[in-house]
Amino acid sequence: xxxxxxxxxxxxxxxxxxxxxxxxxxxxxxxxxxxxxxxxxxxxxxxxxxxxxxxxxxxxxxxxxxxxxxxxxxxxxxxxxxxxxxxxxxxxxxxxxxxxxxxxxxxxxxxxxxxxxxxxxxxxxxxxxxxxxxxxxxxxxxxxxxxxxxxxxxxxxxxxxxxxxxxxxxxxxxxxxxxxxxxxxxxxxxxxxxxxxxxxxxxxxxxxxxxxxxxxxxxxxxxxxxxxxxxxxxxxxxxxxxxxxxxxxxxxxxxxxxxxxxxxxxxxxxxxxxxxxxxxxxxxxxxxxxxxxxxxxxxxxxxxxxxxxxxxxxxxxxxxxxxxxxxxxxxxxxxxxxxxxxxxxxxxx
Length: 349
Hints:
Blueprint: H1 3-14, E1 21-30, E2 35-45, E3 50-54, H2 61-69, E4 76-86, E5 99-101, H3 107-113, E6 118-121, H4 125-128, H5 135-145, H6 150-163, H7 169-174, H8 182-194, E7 200-204, H9 212-229, E8 232-237, H10 240-246, E9 249-254, E10 257-263, H11 264-269, H12 274-281, E11 331-334, E12 337-340
Parallel strand pairs: 3-8, 3-9, 6-7, 7-8
Antiparallel strand pairs: 1-2, 1-4, 4-5, 9-10, 10-12, 11-12
Helix pairs in contact: 5-6, 5-8, 6-8, 8-9
C-alpha cells in the first residue's frame, strides 16, 4: 500500500470514528420504465480518507456520484436508500455527533451541502465548463453562491488557481474555456471544486481526457490540495494502477451493484470476485511486454438487460455454474473484505 494510503487508513482508525459520508442501500431508477440502474449500493468514506470506486463504463459509477451530488438526469430518481453526511466538523463520536440524511433535506439545504461541503470534478472539462462564461467567473461562482463577497471570491479564486499549478493567472482568469489547453481546463475545474475547501471531493475520471504526462500532473495536484485542505477523496476510475498508488480502500462496481470491497491492499492481493480478478489481469505492466493485452470478454449489461434471480456477471464469468443463472449472488464477509458471489472463498485461508 502507498504511503498516502497508509496515512489515510491510520488517520481513520486512530482519529474519527464516524463516517463523513455513508451511502446506505441506495437505489436509482429511470422513472419512465422503473428500471433500476443502481441497486442497494453501500459506501462509507471517513474524514481524510482516499477511497476508490472502480468499474468499467456503464457500471453506474457516475450515476452514484450524481445521486450524492443531487445532479441526477431528469429521467432518473432515487427510489430507495439514505445518504448520510456528518454534521460534526471533527467527526468524533460524542453526544453532539450526528449524521443527516441529505435526501430528507429541502432543496436549499441540499445546495448548502452540495458545492460547499461536497464538490465534484467532472470527467470532461470541455463539457463541464460554460463556453460563454470566463474561467474566473466559473471558479468563483460557487463561493459567491455560498455567501462569499465578490471581491473575496475573486481573490480566493486566483489563490486556488495558483495552487492548482496554473501560470499567467490574470490571463486565464479572464479567458474563456476554448482559449485554454485541456490541462488548463482541468485545473480550472479543480479550482472551482476546491474554492470552498469542501470536506469531500468526488473526482470522476479526472484524467481520462488527458495524455499520460498530464494525467500524472493533474492527479498529483488533486492529491496535494486534498492533503493541504484535509479533504476526503472519492476517486471514480477504471484504472486499478492509480488506485493502488493513492487509495486506502476500494469499492468494485458492476452493473449497478457493489460486488467487492475492502482495503486496497487486500483486494489487490486477494481478489475474491471473478470480475475483480479480470480487471486486475487487464492492467498492463513490463512483465507482459510483447504479450496480447487481456480484456474482459463481453460487455456490461444495460439496466434493461439485467435479469432478476441471476448474477449480472453470469454471461462473462469464467467460473459460472448453473446455479448462477437461477439465483442472485449472496453477500459474503471475510473480516472487512466483502464480496457478492455464490462461490467466493477466502484464498488466504
